[in-house]
Design goal:
42% of the residues lie in helices and 19% in strands. The chain has 352 residues and is of the alpha/beta class. It is globular. Bound molecules: 5'-O-[(R)-(carboxyoxy)(hydroxy)phosphoryl]adenosine. 5'-O-[(R)-(carboxyoxy)(hydroxy)phosphoryl]adenosine is lined by residues 14, 143-145, 171-172, 174-175, 186, 188-189, 192, 282-284, 286-287, 314-315.
Length: 352
């Protein structure tokens, strides 16, 4: 009896080197091993990701991270049946390091290679936790670089982008507000923590693209840059008046505005599209205000919420291996060995 294919996933689109092994059973995907190395500390003093530093860190981490993931799985390279690697979107240098490693391994092991989409990964990783997805679902992918609403008829062959942020991503807005409030980089988790101590109803910040006039063209789009500016103006006005800034209330009211818009638009999309399962993924899905509000409003709307545990929220190899396993299970044609990386890979393209 042959066992289910073992898929090696490699993720290097930003500052995390993620490697994981997922077994593609006919009726489920099983995570059997994983490892991650992060260069986030090397970027902190610059207040943002420096692509060249990230690329070098991926290069140094690739071998050891691969070995750790294999050890974790109790497997050797010869056991690998297919390789999935992030082909885009992301930073070209970091993506190229991962793609080069994946191609070298695919040639050496003589196994198929799948170049997969980083933004769909967070939508696929839930299959490792919640079982294979139903046919139709809504996916909200929120991170430092993306805020995207996807209608998923099939996680490999049927993804449609319904809307996206027109300016800042949700995580990016949190990082910018974090800087404004004097919190360390990346500010997202710090703003989240501070917000839990404040009153979300203390200040009524604007909800971007929710006015009636925006519903025709931007019902499913997001905008957070006006909100970020409103927070800056509010804080400046207090400081100019010599008043103390209630940091926790500012953080809580800001976080509430972001979560409110994300959840309201997503549930409206589920209702209009007649979809009753919602998957939330991406680094920002660790946000506690979003998790709480989504749970509350999905329950009220009769929508089943699938939101992965925190360890799957940041960039990791498991999401890429999970997407690779979904491609293998469907018998999708592998990518060519001259697979390019695409920093702005369209979301409708799940595999290249
Ligand atoms: O997907 P991800 O790991 O990578 C990028 O897209 O960069 O997302 C990281 C983003 C950062 O902006 C980070 O500040 C934000 O997600 N983030 C959070 C929380 N955890 C991570 N934002 C708010 N609350 C959190 N708990």
């Amino acid at each position: 009896m042959t066992s289910a294919p073992l898929v090696l996933g490699i993720e290097t689109s930003c500052d995390e080197t993620g490697v994981a092994l997922v077994r593609a059973h006919p009726d489920r995907s099983e995570l059997v091993g994983e490892a991650v190395a992060s260069s986030v500390d090397e970027h902190a003093r610059f207040g943002g990701i420096i692509p060249e530093i990230a690329s070098r860190a991926h290069l140094e981490a690739m071998g050891p991270t691969l070995r750790r993931a294999l050890e974790d799985a109790g497997a050797s390279l010869e056991d690998v049946d297919a390789i999935a690697v992030t082909a885009g979107p992301g930073l070209v240098g970091p993506l190229t390091v991962g793609a080069s490693a994946a191609k070298a391994l695919a040639v050496a092991l003589d196994v198929p290679l799948y170049g997969v989409n980083h933004v769909i990964g967070p939508a696929a990783v839930g299959e490792l936790v919640h079982g294979l997805f139903p046919v139709r679902l809504m996916a909200l992918v929120v991170s430092g670089g993306h805020t995207t609403l996807l209608r998923v008829e099939d996680v490999v062959t049927g993804v449609t982008e319904l809307g996206s942020t027109l300016d800042d991503a949700a995580g990016e807005a949190f990082d910018k507000v974090g800087r404004l409030l004097g919190l360390p980089y990346p500010g997202g988790p710090h703003v989240d923590r501070l917000a839990r101590e404040g009153d979300p109803r203390a200040i009524r910040f604007p909800r971007g693209l929710t006015a009636a006039k925006d519903q025709e063209r931007h019902a499913y789009d997001f905008s957070f840059s006006g909100l970020k500016t409103a927070v800056a103006r509010w804080v400046e006005a207090r400081e100019d008046a010599g008043e103390e800034v209630p940091l926790a209330d500012v953080a809580a009211s800001f976080a509430d505005a972001v979560a409110d818009v994300l959840v309201a638009k997503t549930i409206a999309a589920c209702e209009r599209e007649g979809i009753d399962t919602l998957v939330v993924g991406g680094g920002f899905s660790a946000n506690s205000q979003l998790r709480e509000l989504a749970a509350e409003r999905c329950a009220a709307a009769g929508v089943t919420l699938r939101i992965p545990p925190l360890r799957f929220c940041t960039d990791n190899g498991a999401m890429i291996a999970a997407l690779g396993a979904a491609a293998v299970r469907r018998g999708v044609a592998p990518s060519p060995l001259e697979l390019p990386v695409d920093s702005s890979m369209p979301l409708e393209l799940v595999t290249l």
